[in-house]
Write a structure and sequence with these properties.
heterodimer, A: 4-stranded parallel β-sheet, globular, disordered N terminus, B: TIM Barrel, 9-stranded parallel β-sheet, binds pyridoxal-5'-phosphate
């Protein structure tokens, strides 16, 4: 298939379901807005003017394409070739800006003057605040107070960008509650407000919309790999919180049966400890935040708290498309512990002069333990940079050694 | 008699009885196990004694997306106090012989355990007449409704001010028991005023619902508001205001007294 045909085939319909997963499990009040959003996205993605505007901003504002970087010292350490897809070099420091920019452009087109978002690590909040500043939109970001503590620099960045950071005190005061608070705000203000969800989760059309907007990671990486190495990678590896960077880099490779897709979840204190965020590896089928997927829940269906050193992976669910890719065997999902992720952060800093986000460090940690056998190379999505995590790193490890 | 008539039939009888008295049905909401198990039971009995026509019994859930701060906090506290699905079913059982009970339950709890069929069996065994699943809108609800129908548990759908006209007609068509009209664009919680657009909204809902009663909920927090809504709907649902009252009691008896006082007032003003 040519790139053009591949593009066309993904554009045929906006799926509501991925196998049995997905759907729209939300209060009736939101259905009209989800219909409106679906129609707006169907229209916008076929509008050359929208594409042109988005492409120009991706290039000049985000700094795309991000490099595909052959990490030589890391490759030597692992024993096989590794290319890093440098989303850490995207403006604001993570892949989250791809989605935030696309959705705020869409909101502007829909005539919604007010934007709300949730954030865990603060990366999506910063990305959304940034896009809102660029487009002159009002912006409110919901954030759990535990995450406000863990990711303080990002809170200041959002405020500087003109966004209001709304603290959320419920539950464990992390990402799950921030998403819930944002959804409640949306239910109350749906006529004037667009909710920029930060990952490939939520009611349809969000999982497909976010994937479409993050797909640029995989499109670029695939073309860059072919140009640099003359071949496709043997494996594509990404961390999975809600699953947006992973689905973005996986999507263009799904039809390439010879390319293995590997998602790495938060193992927290270890799966056995029960304190983790591995909803695909150790969850059950259930509904969280509007879609049916794989979630952490008890036998009554109460959603459990996730646990991860990394705020962006500290979430008891993941996107419905990942649950489907898991069931069909097309992608495989593993987990690494907090400890392994912290070590991997340090290792990459020393080997490559790149301080990765704690989220991305999970993917690095898995790679360090699972070198590629035989010929070929890996592509790993370095979803973000680690500046935001330094305080947490020092708190956990003791000092920056 | 089809199995489906069981729960729906009981609900219909309750609405008809209120109508015969020339008033809308009084439908208080409560959270099972809130503020604790015994207080929840005392509140349920107080609702029956104070003249409720039908009780909406909330099953505490970790992530209640349709609920505002008052009920969300009650969910959290009930769960912290040890409430489970069992607690809610026991509360239902304690009053179900005296009054029709409609469960308010989030979909993940319906799908857990053995799925919708098993949930419907458990609910029916506890005497529930119906269930409202606030995060299961038209389009996602078919298999669950089939399971509820088979067990005779009436699946009560919600209408919102944002619901389109064709969709509203569809929803009314599949309604069992009654149609739950959400009064405003928002989550549950007390509001200063009844929305100006509500009368027109209720009229269109009633036109589509035909014989099926239409009850209005969300935002009704005073006896005067209840009376106002009672003029345009077949039933009046009072939630957050009563949950707040239940939470203010330090003992089961105090919680029961607090809700009884408010309900008695609402009952008088509905009849007025
Ligand atoms: C740098 C980075 N990577 C990954 C994630 C996880 O999200 P997702 O699984 O949607 O990519 C986050 C979330 O905040 C993040 O900031």
């Amino acid at each position: 298939m040519s790139a053009n045909e591949r593009e066309q085939s993904t554009r045929a319909v906006i799926p509501q379901r991925f196998g049995p997963y997905g759907g729209r499990y939300v209060p009736e009040t939101l259905i009209a807005a989800l219909d409106e959003l679906t129609a707006a996205w169907e229209e916008a993605r076929d509008d050359p003017a929208f594409d042109a505007r988005q492409d120009a901003l991706r290039r000049d504002f985000i700094g795309r394409p991000t490099p595909l970087y052959l990490a030589e010292r890391l490759s030597e350490r692992v024993g096989s070739q590794v290319y890093l897809k440098r989303e850490d070099l995207a403006h604001t420091g993570a892949h989250k800006i791809n989605n935030a920019l696309g959705q705020t452009l869409l909101a502007q087109r829909m005539g919604k003057p007010r934007i709300i978002a949730e954030t865990g690590a603060g990366q999506h909040g910063v990305a959304t605040a940034t896009a809102c500043a660029l487009l002159g939109l009002e912006c409110v970001v919901y954030m759990g107070t535990e995450d406000i503590r863990r990711q303080a620099p990002n809170v200041e960045r959002m405020r500087l960008l003109g966004a209001e950071v709304a603290p959320v005190e419920a539950g464990a005061r992390t990402l799950k509650e921030a998403v819930s608070a944002a959804i409640r705000d949306w239910v109350a203000n749906v006529e004037t407000t667009h909710y920029v969800i930060g990952s490939a989760v939520g009611p349809a059309p969000y999982p497909a919309l976010v994937r479409d907007l993050q797909r640029v990671i995989g499109e670029e990486a695939r073309a860059q790999a072919l140009a640099a190495a003359g071949a496709l990678p043997r494996r594509v590896i990404a961390c999975v919180g809600g699953g947006s960077n992973a689905i973005g880099i996986f999507a263009p490779f799904v039809e390439d049966a010879e390319v293995a897709l590997v998602g790495v979840e938060a193992g927290g204190d270890g799966i056995e400890s029960g304190r983790h965020g591995a909803s695909l590896g150790a969850g059950q089928t259930g509904v969280l935040h509007g879609s049916l997927s794989s979630v952490l829940a008890d036998e009554d269906g109460q959603i459990l708290e996730a646990h991860s050193v990394s705020a962006g992976l500290d979430y008891p669910g993941s996107g419905p498309e990942h649950a489907h890719l898991r069931d069909t065997g097309r992608a495989r999902y593993f987990s690494v512990t907090d400890e392994q992720a912290l070590q991997a952060l340090r290792e990459l800093a020393r080997l490559e002069g790149i301080i990765p986000a704690l989220e991305s460090s999970h993917a690095i940690a898995w790679l360090l333990e699972n070198p590629l056998e035989g010929d070929g190379f890996d592509v790993l999505c370095l979803s973000g940079r680690g500046d935001k995590d330094l305080a947490e790193y020092v708190r956990r490890v003791g000092e920056s050694r | 008699m089809s199995a489906q008539a069981d729960g729906a039939g009981r609900i219909a009888t309750a609405f008809a009885a209120a109508k015969a008295e020339g008033r809308a049905a009084l439908m208080p909401y409560m959270m099972a196990g809130y503020p604790d198990r015994d207080s929840g039971l005392a509140v349920a009995r107080a609702y029956v004694d104070a003249g409720a026509d039908l009780i909406e019994l909330g099953i505490p859930f970790s992530d209640p997306l349709a609920d505002g701060p008052t009920i969300h906090a009650a969910d959290t506290q009930a769960l912290a106090a040890g409430a489970t699905l069992r607690t809610a079913l026991e509360t239902c059982e304690a009053i179900a012989e005296r009054i029709p009970v409609v469960l308010m339950v989030y979909v993940n709890m319906v799908l857990a355990h053995g799925g919708a069929e098993q949930f419907a069996r458990l609910a029916r065994a506890a005497g529930a007449a119906g269930a409202i699943v606030p995060d299961l809108p038209l389009g996602e609800d078919e298999s669950v409704r089939e399971a509820f129908d088979a067990a005779g548990l009436a699946m009560v759908p919600l209408l919102a001010p944002t619901t389109s006209a064709p969709r509203r007609a569809e929803i009314c068509k599949v309604a069992r028991g009654f149609v739950y009209l959400v009064s405003t664009v928002g989550t549950t919680g007390e509001r200063a005023e009844v929305p100006a657009a509500l009368a027109a909204l209720a009229a269109t809902a009633k036109a589509d619902a035909g014989e099926t009663p239409v009850a209005v909920g969300f935002g009704i927090g005073t006896a005067a508001q209840a009376a106002e809504v009672g003029k345009i709907a077949d039933g009046v649902i009072i939630g957050s205001r009563l949950v707040r009252a239940a939470g203010e009691g330090a003992t089961p008896a105090e919680s029961a007294d607090a809700v009884a006082e408010f309900l008695a007032e609402a009952r008088v003003s509905l009849a007025g």
